[in-house]
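To the wet lab folks,

You asked to see what we're planning to order before we commit. Fair enough. Below is the target structure as tokens, and below that is the sequence we designed to fit it. If anything looks off to you, flag it before the synthesis order goes out.
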């Protein structure tokens, strides 16, 4: 693995951790995690998507709520209880005040990650 690629992975990992900590604190939920890549971010509850964001060509952030969690007749009751927590998190993130804060945090880390990766001159 090249040094530039190692640096890119390190940048992404560090920003994932920083953004995750900020959002966990804001939402008071330790089941939230964030994954940032160059130009994009996803917020998850456990392994279920909650919100995705990306930077448009004009530099403005575009975001959308994603509610994807599969439940069927074989789903364990603990998973259904987690689903209730998931829905509560979605409700919380969809309030205008919280949504704005979440998007600002994601935007900050998308831009920070993109800028640092661009400095490495790799895709």
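Sequence we intend to order:
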């Amino acid at each position: 693995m090249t040094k530039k690629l190692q640096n890119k992975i390190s940048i992404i990992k560090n920003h994932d951790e920083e953004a995750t900590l900020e959002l966990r604190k804001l939402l008071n939920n330790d089941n939230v995690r964030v994954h940032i890549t160059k130009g994009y971010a996803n917020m998850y509850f456990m392994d279920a998507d909650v919100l995705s964001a990306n930077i448009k060509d004009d530099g403005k952030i575009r975001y959308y709520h994603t509610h994807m969690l599969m439940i069927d007749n074989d789903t364990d009751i603990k998973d259904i209880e987690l689903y209730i927590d998931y829905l509560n998190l979605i409700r919380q993130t969809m309030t205008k005040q919280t949504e704005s804060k979440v998007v600002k945090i994601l935007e900050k880390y998308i831009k920070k990650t993109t800028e640092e990766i661009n400095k490495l001159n790799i895709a």
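Structural context that might help your review: Residues 3-116 form one domain. The radius of gyration is 16 Å.

Thanks,
Computational group
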